[in-house]
Amino acid sequence: PDAHPLYKLLRPHYRYTMAINSAARGTLINKGGIIDHAFAIGGDGKDILFQRTATKYRVQWTNIKENVKERGVDDPNLLPGYRYRDDGIRVWNTIESYVS
Protein backbone atom coordinates (compact mmCIF):
# COMPACT_ATOMS: atom_id res chain seq x y z
CA PRO A 1 0.00 0.00 0.00
CA ASP A 2 1.02 3.60 -0.62
CA ALA A 3 1.06 4.38 3.11
CA HIS A 4 3.50 1.61 4.05
CA PRO A 5 6.81 3.10 5.32
CA LEU A 6 8.96 0.65 3.36
CA TYR A 7 7.06 1.52 0.19
CA LYS A 8 7.69 5.20 0.84
CA LEU A 9 11.36 4.51 1.44
CA LEU A 10 11.91 2.43 -1.71
CA ARG A 11 9.53 4.08 -4.20
CA PRO A 12 11.90 6.84 -5.32
CA HIS A 13 14.54 4.25 -6.10
CA TYR A 14 12.28 1.90 -8.05
CA ARG A 15 9.76 4.30 -9.53
CA TYR A 16 11.04 4.21 -13.11
CA THR A 17 12.83 0.87 -13.02
CA MET A 18 10.45 -0.91 -15.40
CA ALA A 19 10.63 1.89 -17.98
CA ILE A 20 14.42 2.07 -17.75
CA ASN A 21 14.77 -1.70 -18.08
CA SER A 22 12.45 -1.74 -21.07
CA ALA A 23 14.40 1.03 -22.80
CA ALA A 24 17.69 -0.75 -22.05
CA ARG A 25 16.45 -3.97 -23.63
CA GLY A 26 15.53 -2.05 -26.76
CA THR A 27 18.68 0.03 -27.17
CA LEU A 28 21.52 -1.16 -24.95
CA ILE A 29 21.53 -4.94 -24.65
CA ASN A 30 19.63 -5.96 -27.78
CA LYS A 31 21.40 -7.74 -30.63
CA GLY A 32 23.45 -5.10 -32.42
CA GLY A 33 22.77 -2.55 -29.68
CA ILE A 34 25.10 -0.07 -28.04
CA ILE A 35 26.69 -2.62 -25.70
CA ASP A 36 27.54 -4.90 -28.61
CA HIS A 37 29.58 -2.09 -30.12
CA ALA A 38 30.97 -0.66 -26.86
CA PHE A 39 32.32 -3.88 -25.32
CA ALA A 40 35.63 -5.11 -26.68
CA ILE A 41 34.30 -8.67 -26.39
CA GLY A 42 31.36 -7.85 -28.67
CA GLY A 43 27.78 -8.99 -28.40
CA ASP A 44 28.47 -12.72 -28.42
CA GLY A 45 31.19 -12.31 -25.81
CA LYS A 46 28.82 -10.26 -23.68
CA ASP A 47 26.23 -13.03 -23.84
CA ILE A 48 28.78 -15.66 -22.80
CA LEU A 49 30.03 -13.43 -19.98
CA PHE A 50 26.48 -12.88 -18.68
CA GLN A 51 25.72 -16.60 -18.85
CA ARG A 52 28.88 -17.51 -16.93
CA THR A 53 28.19 -14.87 -14.31
CA ALA A 54 24.57 -15.96 -13.87
CA THR A 55 25.60 -19.54 -13.13
CA LYS A 56 28.01 -18.40 -10.40
CA TYR A 57 25.91 -15.67 -8.78
CA ARG A 58 24.61 -16.35 -5.27
CA VAL A 59 21.95 -14.26 -3.58
CA GLN A 60 23.91 -14.65 -0.32
CA TRP A 61 26.44 -12.18 -1.76
CA THR A 62 23.89 -9.43 -1.15
CA ASN A 63 24.30 -9.87 2.62
CA ILE A 64 26.79 -7.08 3.30
CA LYS A 65 27.87 -8.51 6.65
CA GLU A 66 28.88 -11.81 5.06
CA ASN A 67 30.31 -10.05 2.01
CA VAL A 68 32.75 -7.85 3.92
CA LYS A 69 33.70 -10.75 6.20
CA GLU A 70 34.52 -13.03 3.24
CA ARG A 71 36.63 -10.27 1.68
CA GLY A 72 38.48 -9.61 4.95
CA VAL A 73 37.38 -5.98 5.28
CA ASP A 74 35.00 -6.46 8.21
CA ASP A 75 37.27 -5.16 10.99
CA PRO A 76 37.03 -1.36 11.46
CA ASN A 77 40.28 -1.43 13.45
CA LEU A 78 42.19 -2.86 10.49
CA LEU A 79 40.41 -0.74 7.88
CA PRO A 80 38.99 2.42 9.47
CA GLY A 81 36.69 4.71 7.52
CA TYR A 82 35.56 2.12 4.97
CA ARG A 83 32.21 3.74 4.16
CA TYR A 84 30.86 0.89 2.03
CA ARG A 85 31.12 -1.42 5.03
CA ASP A 86 30.21 1.09 7.76
CA ASP A 87 27.25 2.75 6.06
CA GLY A 88 26.10 -0.43 4.34
CA ILE A 89 25.91 -2.37 7.59
CA ARG A 90 23.97 0.47 9.22
CA VAL A 91 21.43 0.39 6.39
CA TRP A 92 21.31 -3.43 6.50
CA ASN A 93 20.71 -3.42 10.29
CA THR A 94 17.98 -0.78 9.98
CA ILE A 95 16.07 -2.68 7.32
CA GLU A 96 16.64 -6.00 9.11
CA SER A 97 15.23 -4.62 12.39
CA TYR A 98 12.27 -3.13 10.54
CA VAL A 99 11.24 -6.34 8.79
CA SER A 100 11.93 -8.61 11.79
Mean pLDDT: 89
Largest sheet: none
Roughly how much helix do the residues carry, as a percent range?
A: 55-70%
How large is the count of helical segments?
6
> In terms of structural class, how would the helical and strand content be classed?
mainly alpha
Topology order in helix (H) and strand (E) letters? HHHHHH
Straight-line N-to-C gap:
19 Å
- From the spread of the alpha carbons, the general shape counts as flat
Structural features, described:
65% of the residues lie in helices and 0% in strands. It contains 6 helices and no strands. The longest helix has 17 residues, at 83-99. With 100 residues, the protein is an all-alpha fold. The two termini are 19 Å apart.
Describe the structure concisely:
The protein has six helices and no strands. It has 100 residues and is mostly helical.
Write the layout of secondary structure elements.
Layout lengths: L4 H10 L2 H11 L6 H5 L3 H15 L7 H7 L12 H17 L1
Any descriptors?
single chain, 100 residues, mainly alpha, 65% helix, flat
